Predict the structure of Glutaredoxin.
Amino acid sequence: MDVVARLASQRAVVIFSKSTCCMSHAIKRLFYEQGVSPAIVEIDQDMYGKDIEWALARLGCSPTVPAVFVGGKFVGTANTVMTLHLNGSLKMLLKEAGALWL
């Protein structure tokens, strides 16, 4: 869990992803289209990927990817992030975290 907390606090937005996951790709694209440059941790390409995936599961991520952190706090997986985007709450979170300026 410490490695996830450390990585999640390094940037305003951190996405834990797998390079082969279509939902991870969609969430990354959503953030890029919002003008946000998230830190991406591809857990299937990280030497500590299994430990990270286990820690994400313990946080309640189901499925474990994509897992999105904004301002160092766990926001949720794809369903939650898309819901926040559709109801307009995501932009406010991004602004508060300093990831979005407009």
